[in-house]
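sanity check this record:
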Amino acid sequence: QVQLVESGGGLVQAGGSLRLSCAASGSTFSRYVMGWFRQVPGKEREFVAAINRSGGSTSVADSVKGRFTISRDNVKNMVYLQMNSLKPEDTAVYYCAARTAVYVVTTTRYDYWGQGTQVTVSS
């Protein structure tokens, strides 16, 4: 099992930047594909970005491509989501997720989830 704790959310103006962090504990971090998802009230949770076990392969949703970057540090057991050029439509609760897999996973079929961190982008 792995426990995930997100941090770094907050309120930012449109055009600004935030970096979300996700700390993993409880299991060998490098065994897991990691993902970031987001959800707004009344809507389904949607894929944002994912990274494979080594960090050598990533996938990013079209809606954030060119603005968001996912990365990981397998020594520190951390995964990050760098968010630039934020837009009001990026406002959501952002979740970190983990699953044992070889390749990046872009669906919500992850095994472990964090509690989420709120990101609010004002216009």
User: Anything to note?
Assistant: The chain has a mean pLDDT of 96. The radius of gyration is 13 Å. The chain has no helices and eleven strands.
